[in-house]
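Exam prep: given the inputs below (a chain plus zinc ion), describe the expected output before reading on.
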Amino acid sequence: MNSEINIVSGEKRGHEESEFESKRPRLDNQSTTDSSSSSLYLDTSSILINLYIFKINRHMLDFDFEKVCSVSLSNLNVYACLVCGKYFQGRGRNSHAYFHSLHEDHHVFINLHTLQVYVLPDGYEVKDSSLNDIKYVLHPTFTEEQVALLDQNTKHSYDLNNKKYLPGFVGLNNVKANDYVNVVIQALAHIPPLRDYFILQNFENSTQLVQRFSILVRKIWNPQAFKGQVSPHELLQEISNASNKRFKLAEQSDPIDFLCWFLNSLHKDLGGTKKQNSSIIHKIFQGEVKVESQMIIAKTDVEEKDRSFDVDREIVAKRSPFLLLNLDLPPPPLFQDEVEKNIIPQVALTTILSKYDGRTPQESAGTLKRSQLVHLPNYIIFHIKRFTKNNWAAEKNPTIVNFPIKNLDMGEYLESSSAENLSTHYDLIANICHEGKPGKGKGIYKVHVQHRGKDQWYQIQDLIVEEINAQMIFLSESYIQIWERK
Ligand SMILES: [Zn+2]
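Solution:
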């Protein structure tokens, strides 16, 4: 029998049940919070508690769902029954957890916030190292050394069913139509400085959105998970709340809309302001673009494509920060016959990037514009504008974008006077693509992320995680890409 079990009286430790009376022999004299100094030897209580611990069923435990009492739906002071996995409020004499322990003969409960474990109805706190794995699954923690090794780890972990999984490359449940959130979460969870920040910082006093994203990132990288997949349910609930139901888990939305909203929300919640580098989000993603514009004076004899800046008239220059770069696809050709319809139009990434070369003019609403990058962020997000809406329906441009997976030179789009002395070469680290027809719920989103240690790409579509040949990534209808400075 385990002699390390340490029982602490509910009266001494309890915050809520001062009226609590124990039916079992009082243990006050022996109780302590220091597990090393006092051990209970084989008495009735410790035998019982060992029996209770033996009845804990880890297969029934799932801490991914919203932490609310299954009876009262309250989110305050919620405990999980470690025998059946259900959540109940409180542990006092009139609490739902207390009644559950009496009616179901289930006796071990964990406080989902403090991670303290209690035996009910007695109310003893139990400190037993055999429960640490449960606490870890509920709230995975990592040391800086462990985080530094995440990308090198090629060792598979095994879940409770002995199914192997690779930490960091696990599927996310699609509760109903949240693939558009899943792909964004996966992409962000594979940006090392962002991931490390959300794993290592303490967000106790931060917003629910920040806390739940942090927990989800930890769970994705958890090497000791009970199951080799994670449900983003808790974060989804908070996304719905925080966005005033603009983003729902039961209705597909556009991942680029969600990504913009999410990054801006995290930035604000982390205390970010308009000042440069005021949050980790801006430190990682924020760049600067210079846009020069000139009013167009109508010249009927000039074809649209031949328009150019008139050096004799005023050119207005404006610098603005950006978190992502919008890239326009050329309109797909109008094919005449059935054979031609099978030809998939293609364009080089460098062609659509020429929008930022400082020379190529774009025309919109009577203004001619040319853009150039002034500051390159460490991580560049491209939004390849594939979807348009007309009055009738959503339309999708099927053009395939050709790109080098490594060593994209962004120097050509950076102002030559830029004082930055950093590399202008970037490697792809995440690629979100769309498959199927445009319009809500008609297509699906997938994401490609890379395991750096193995130099292996993975395709993740909700719960399906598969190794993919890097060559296959080029064939996908890329929608959002994230590139990393070398
Ligand atoms: Zn139970």
